[in-house]
Each structure stands twice: as C-alpha cells, then as structure tokens.
Amino acid sequence: MSIAIRAATTIEECLAVERLTAEIWGGGDVAVPAHLLITIAKNRGVVLLAWDDARPIGFCFCFPSYTAERRLKQCSHMAGVLPAYRDARIGEQLKWAQRAAVLADQIDLITWTFDPLETRNSRLNIHKLGAVCNTYLRNLYGDMADALNHGVPSDRFQVDWHLASARVLGCLAGDRPNWAQTAGAAPLLNHAPRGHSYLRPGAPDETVWGAEWLRVVVPRNFQAIKAADLALAVAWREQTRDLFEQAFARGYTAVDLALAHDRCAYLLQHKWRPQ
Amino acid sequence: MTASADPIAIRPAVDAADCARIEQLIMQIWQRGPQETVSKTLLTALLHNHSAMLLAYDGDRPIGFCFSFLSLTAERRLKHHSQMTGVLPAYQGRGVGERLKWAQRDVVQRQGIDLITWTFDPLETRNAWLNLHKLGAIAAVYYRDFYGALDDGLNAGLPTDRLEAQWWINSARVTARAAQRETAVENRHWSEVAPQAADAPPINPPDRSGELPRPGAVAAGAFDRPIVLVAAPAAIAQIKRAEPPLALAWRLHLREALEQAFARGYRAVDLLLRPDGPCYVLAGEEVAVGRLGDW
Fold first, then answer.
1. Using CB atoms, which residue from B41, B48, B147 is nearest to A29?
2. B98 with B206: CB under 8 angstroms?
3. What is the pLDDT of residue A145?
4. Run of H or E including A270
5. Cys staple from A268: which of A14, A58, A120, A252, with CB 3.0 to 4.6 Å?
C-alpha cells in the first residue's frame, strides 16, 4: 500500500470523488456531482483525493465561508474512505492535508458537522484532530433517508478546527494533552446505569453546573442501539440534545471524548479559548 | 406583466425542506437520477454557509431555483459564485430565471458583498442575452474546457469552454438595469447608446450564404477601435444537431476571437441581437463600463 494525497483539479479526479461517494455511502442524500466539485475547486475550495497507487480510495472537500464575526473560514462538507482502508488512518491523513492546504491560503479555521452520538467520528474530530465544539444544530438536515441516519433527528455538532492553535499543533505533533487524566473525575451531567444489554440514559444531574470540567455520557455503539431499539436511540438523542444545548449556552466547550468499555464521555470545559 | 398579475413568487430557501425541493427540481429539470443531483445535505450545508439560495413557486409548487456559494477574488475579497439556476421546462421563457437572479442580488447585497460570478457557454447566446444584456454582467475571463468532457447531451462532443460572468451588483450599470426592468423595455437596443459602434461590421463576419452560418476569419487590425463586435451563431442547438463539426468550428473560432480580445483588455459588455445574428459587444480598457449605466 502506497498512499498519497493530492488536490483534485481535473474533471476526471472530481468524477473519481463522485464515484467514491456512491461507493462509500451507497446512495441516498449524498450525491455530489463532479461539476459542483470542480467549480468548488476552482473557487478557493479544497478538494483532496487519497490514492493507493493509481486507485482513488478516499476524499474530503471544503468550500469558503465566514463566521458570525465575518472571519474567513472553510466549511468542510464530506470526508470518506473506502471500507477496506478504514483502519489505515487515511481519514486522519486527509484532514491534516486539508489543514495544510487551507493554511496555505491564509485561512486558519475549518468547521464541519457530525453526529455527536457517532463516537468514532468524535474520537477522530475532537480527540485526534483537536477540533472543539460549542455549537449544537438541531435536526440540521431534516429527515434523512440513508441507513446511518434514518429514524433519529439529524442533530449535529458543528466543530471549530483552529488550525494554528497550540491545541491543534500539539495534536499534529502527537503531543496531545491528556485531557482524560485532567478531567477523568469531573462531575457527570448524566448517568447511565450498568446492567442493560444496551446502555440506557439515566437521570440528568442538574446540581453540577458551574464546575470547570463536566462530563456527558454517551453510548459507544449508537448504530447497534438504533438497529435494536429505535426508541432508545431517540431517547439518547433527546437527552444529549438537552444537555449539550444547556452546556453550550452556559459557556462550556466539548474538548475531548474519553472511552470506557461500554460507554464514552464527552469532556466539557468552561470558558475554553483557543490559544 | 406586472408583479401582481404574475402568479410566480420568488422566496429565499430557509431550511432542509427547501433544500430537498431543490434536490428534486435538479432531477426534474436535467432528468437526472438520485445519484446525479446535488444532495439536500450539501445544499443544507451551503445554505448554513451563506449561500444565496432561492426558490420560485407557482402557488405551492416549486418550479425554479438558484444557489451560490462563497468564494474569494484574487484580491481575497468575498464574492459569491453562482453554481446553478434552473426552471422547469413548462415555465421557461417567462423570465423566471431573470427574477431568480435579481432576488439573488438582493440576498448578496444584504451580506455586504458586491460581486457574483458564474460561468456560461459563449455559444449559448440566449444565456449571454440574459447575463450581459438584461442583468448587466460583464465577462473578461475565458476558460477553455472548464468542466472537461461533459456527457450530458447538451455538451456532448464539444469542449466545455465557458465565459465567467462578473456581476458587479452595486455598479451603476446594474443598478440602472434593476430600475428599468419594471418598465418592460424588453428589447432596448444597445445602439441607443452608441449607434456608430452598433452598426459596425463584426470583426469576424460569418459566411451566411448557406443554411447555417459558418465562422469567418478575425479581420486584420480588428482591435483598432475602443468598441468592437464579435459575431456568434444564433441557434447553436440546431447547429449541434445538424452539423456537429460546424459546432466545434464555432467553438474554436469564438475561443480564438474572445481570447484575443480579452488579452488586449477588452471586456464583453453586451449582446446585440441584430437581424443578421447575435454579436458580442466588446469594450476596450479605455471604455469605462461602470459609468455607462445605460449598458
């Protein structure tokens, strides 16, 4: 395996991205036509392709936008890797290549959205890449037909990736602060009792607001819960929606995701600021 | 037709449901499958990132749309790039596309941004008429084979050359057109402004002796005047059907003429519909387009 990541600039390369979206997601709500990709590539967006020798195996793309403060940023819409390559850290390499390309255009912020209950994505986005989140978007895409999203409101974290921050430089160097150790004993905003075949949300604890560090428990295997018990999946969505919305409104930022054997915990820090 | 008598209403897209309407319209207008449209998730992401996205309705029925995304000029100023504008076939030819563009201008103006760009095929003079004449965009950038080979019927076999329309939406030229569109000066002729230029022969007189016009040569010393005309074929769709090599000849000919003109600082500022065929109006650097509000 010889992996290389390069910018997609021709229609043939954009068609390769179009085919990858169909291969990776198998249709439904994901169509990205090559004509749009090439226009994005020619209009200061960044379209990247990962190759295994001559075979396209992954991609990501972003387009320009601006923040509420009218600061330039890039919005990253999609990143995907063929199933056979999922454990080769190619998604992560694509994101670091995206960072380099965006920084080279003198833009130092990339945002994107993902489902906070898809903890594999949180692990990459927040823990490994060093993005942070204090923006919760309810049912962003409305009802989605594809298998991953069907049946549960499409709530999303919008993460901010401060490309030049000390936090992100640390992640890039593999010198990641051990947040889990710092905050491992932080109060829990919710509890999830043991002893069920699928993790169930317990009662929230409203008494802990105000601590510098807080934790929110989420399940590790949300897709399995959805497949087995849609009502339970919706219950997780509703409880975590409420807790994250409150937390972000109170000035907390999600800065890490810690793993335990049957659950995960988001770590929230009060008044976090990028350095 | 006054606004009150027209049942078509233009409204900004506001949520994922509106994006799903556009996803469906793309499939209907271009006869594409669900894998070939633009997904509502991407449209929603664009909408959340300041896209100027509009829908046209006949009553409750969505019948047209346009959307843009943010981009930067070479000088790093924010601009919008308008990606798609489409109207259901049954509603084409009724000015819906034009109304969508004017509404797009309103949205972009409210963001404090003054430039919208998009690309169009210089052989599609119907689009040039809308873009340059009615909306007041100008074009000074020529892209060879912008999309690469497109296999969609409309473009089959021809390099996908495109002009970049630059729509300076706060300019006097565009503001004047915005004001005039209510007064239905539908065929306002460019020669009202500069008759001596409008009656001049094009720098590339086509051979019109046959049934279909054939491209001529660009005359020697063609660019010796501040305003020159470049002839284009009127019915490119018919030429593509009847004689594909002739369509290619027109493509390469216009490419040469327009690239030469742009290299000399000319900009396409209008399209003239003369009885002998359409002509692009090219203005040299010394012609201050912005001040010629009537163009």
1. B41
2. no
3. 65
4. strand A263-270
5. A252
d(CA B11, CA B201): 43
Residue B76: Cβ within 10 Å count:
11
Residue B159 and residue B144 in contact, taking contact as beta carbons nearer than 8 Å = yes
Least confident segment among A123-127, A187-191, B162-166, B287-291: B287-291
Chain A positions contacting chain B at CB under 8 Å are 10-12, 22, 27-36, 38-40, 42-45, 63-66, 72, 75, 77-78, 106, 113, 137, 139-142, 144
CB–CB contact B83 A39 (8 Å): yes
Considering only alpha carbons, which residue of chain B is nearest residue A39?
A: B83
- For B35, the closest of A27, A39, A142 (CB atoms) is A27
Nearest to A39 among B17, B49, B81 (CB): B81
Taking alpha carbons only, the member of A171, A160, A152, A167 closest to residue A222 is A152
DSSP assignment of A220-243 equals: S-HHHHHHH-HHHHHHHHHHHHHH
DSSP A145-214: -STTTTTS---EEEEEEETTSHHHHHHHTT----HHHHHTTPPBSB---SSSSS-----B-GGGTT-SEE
Measured distance CA(B196)–CA(A159) in Å, rounded: 60
Name the token pair of B44. Answer: 């929603």
Q: Answer whether A28 sits within 8 Å of B34, measured CB to CB.
A: yes
C-alpha R_g of chain A: 19
CA separation for the pair B19, B16 (Å, rounded): 5
Residue in B15, B38, B119 nearest the CB of A31: B38
Which one, of A193, A115, A123, A126, lies nearest residue A157 by Cα? A115
**Which residues from chain B sit within 8 angstroms of residue A64, using beta carbons?**
69-72, 78
A31 CB neighbours in chain B (<8 A) are 23, 34-39, 42
Inter-residue contact B57 to B63 (CB < 8 Å): yes
Chain A residues whose CB is inside 8 A of the B42 CB are 31-32, 36, 77-78
What letter would DSSP give residue A1? -
pLDDT in tens, B73-129: 989 999 999 999 999 999 999 999 999 999 999 999 999 999 999 999 999 999 999
Q: Which residues have CB under 8 Å from B85's CB, separation 6+?
A: B64, B65, B66, B97, B100, B101, B118
Structure confidence by residue, pLDDT tens digits, B218-240: 988 889 888 899 999 998 999 99
> What is the distance in angstroms between the Cα of B90 and the nearest Cα belonging to chain A?
25
- Compute the Cα dihedral for B211, B212, B218, B224 and give only its sign: positive
